[in-house]
Amino acid sequence: MSHPASTLAVPSYLNADNLGPWGIYLQQVDRVIPYLGSLSRWADTLKRPKRALIVDVPIHLDNGTVAHFEGYRVQHNTSRGPGKGGVRFHQDVTLSEVMALSAWMSIKNAAVNVPYGGAKGGIRVDPRTLSMGELERITRRYTSEIGIIIGPTKDIPAPDVNTNAQIMAWMMDTYSMNEGATATGVVTGKPVDLGGSLGRQEATGRGVFTVGCEAAKHLSMDVSKARIAVQGFGNVGGIAGKLFAEAGARVVTVQDHGGTIFNSNGFDVPALLKHVAANGSVAGFPGADVIDNESFWDVDCDILIPAALEGQLTGARAQRIKAKLVIEGANGPTTPDADDILQDRGVLVLPDVIANAGGVTVSYFEWVQDFSSFFWTEEEINNRLVRIMKDAFNSIWNVAQDKKVSLRTATFIVACSRILHARELRGLYP
Predict the structure, then answer these.
(1) How much is the mean pLDDT over the chain?
(2) Among residues 341, 424, 418, which one has the least CA distance to residue 118?
(3) Is residue 217 annotated as part of the catalytic site, yes or no?
(4) Exposure class string for 72-105: b at 16+ Cβ within 10 A, else e
(5) What is the mean pLDDT of residues 119-140?
(6) Residue range 308-363, pLDDT digits in tens
(7) Who's near 199: CB < 8 A, 6+ residues apart?
(8) Which of 120, 190, 242, 324 is catalytic?
(9) Could you give the C-alpha distances from 176 to 121, 132, 216, in angstroms and in order?
(10) What are the beta bridge partners of residue 72?
(11) What structural domains does the chain harbor?
């Protein structure tokens, strides 16, 4: 008896003009299937999250009322190890977004060859509207609700947009209380005093800088003379900007939710970071010219680092940028049509799934240290991070040259092959 081939139901809101994050990811997978050889028979594994949990998160507000928020935890793939990925608190979080982010985590973890699958979580809430007490209550309630699928050997959350070490401390404590034993390995990105790792805060930005420098060598670009434009100046863009500035580069343009500032001579990056920490955005930084947000994409620069949210570098903007190298600090900042335009224009794109993998790499170090209760020095951590990132980049570069494909497709070839090979070796049960 013959059976119809399995098909993936694509949400009705996905169309050519509005793919959504999950639709973008599916396009990326389709592009890599022709390069997977015999493993392509397993390709639908990549197009279906293993598990998606939607939870109601009710909390008491300070004014005495009860508010309900929607939370998510998606485990995309666990063939190579437990799920791993961040938790974001943002008013625009959707299931499509969390599904895509979990899938990109699968690719990212496999690309740098750490023994994790991909997962992601989020709550649809604007945390700026919550008091500290409300923020703690929503974190703890969410953790209790997803507690049935997370754990040190099942799925390990971490910080993401609008979450931090304190949020991770509350998550770890809540899970531990429910388990009846302290479980430091249930999350990463914790405070150092609770089993967190040295070097974790700067890890993602350091990874962006490391692979950026490797890519610049192949472009014969002198980083010490490069002009940098950064979108998003938080834990990723800010740290990457600081490291590039320390290498002699000029950070000439920065954009965040507060606006866009420009200085052709380059900013004093440490001073700008202090300003952002004190004021919440780059707005009002002394000595900066204010330009409109859309003009950010027209600034004359050598390296562009989109390190904010997904979908920022569109096809129209890709036609305008002056950079020779784009380093994706954010997850999914470049749309597929923009990818094609940039490739046609000869702009090298370092995709998120390798460029911002420094964070999860050091999260892996933290997890290992928690299991052994033996902690490494920051120098050891940074050295291990740089070595892993360089090795991963060079392997992907060689595949790109051999297959004559973009770095994104090359990264997907490497990562998807590893994931599907693990799937094939494990087989199907029952």
Answers:
(1) 94
(2) 418
(3) no
(4) bbbbbbbbbbbbbbbbbbbeebbbbbbbbbbbbb
(5) 98
(6) 988 899 999 999 999 999 999 998 899 889 999 999 999 999 999 999 999 999 99
(7) 206, 362, 365, 378, 381, 382, 385
(8) 120
(9) 19, 21, 45
(10) 54, 122
(11) 49-183 (3.40.50.10860), 201-355 (3.40.50.720)
Give the mean model confidence (pLDDT) for residues 198-214.
Answer: 95
Q: Which one, of 390, 386, 65, 363, lies nearest residue 215 by Cα?
A: 390
C-alpha triplet 5, 6, 10: angle, nearest 5°: 130
Write down the H helix ranges in 290-406: 315-318, 336-344, 352-355, 358-372, 378-403
Say if residues 30 and 40 touch (Cβ distance below 8 Å).
no
Q: How many CA atoms lie within 13 A of 267 on its CB side?
A: 31
> pTM value?
0.91
> Cα(375)–Cα(148) distance, rounded to whole angstroms?
29
Rounded Cα distance, 390 and 209, in Å: 11
Q: Which helix (H) or strand (E) holds 214?
A: helix 200-218
- pLDDT single digits (tens) 353-392: 999 999 999 999 999 999 999 999 999 999 999 999 999 9
Residue with tokens 């304190």: 166
- Strand segments, DSSP code E, in 174-282 are 227-231, 250-256, 259-262
Question: Are the C-beta atoms of 159 and 167 separated by less than 8 Å?
Answer: yes
DSSP state of 396: H
DSSP-derived 3-state class of residue 360 = helix
pLDDT of 6 > 50? The answer is: no
Alpha helices in 219-311 (DSSP H): 237-246, 269-279
Q: What is the DSSP string of 73-135?
A: EEEEE-SSSSEEEEEEEETT--HHHHHHHHHHHHHHHHHTT-S--EEEEEEE--GGGS-HHHH
CB burial string 138-171: b at 16+ within 10 A, e below: bbbbbbbbbbebbbbeebbbbbbbbbebebbbbb
Long-range contacts of 331-336 (CB under 8 A, 24+ apart): 331/101, 331/104, 331/356, 332/21, 332/24, 332/25, 332/100, 332/101, 332/104, 333/231, 333/306, 333/307, 333/308, 333/309, 334/306, 335/19, 335/24, 335/311, 336/19, 336/24, 336/27, 336/28
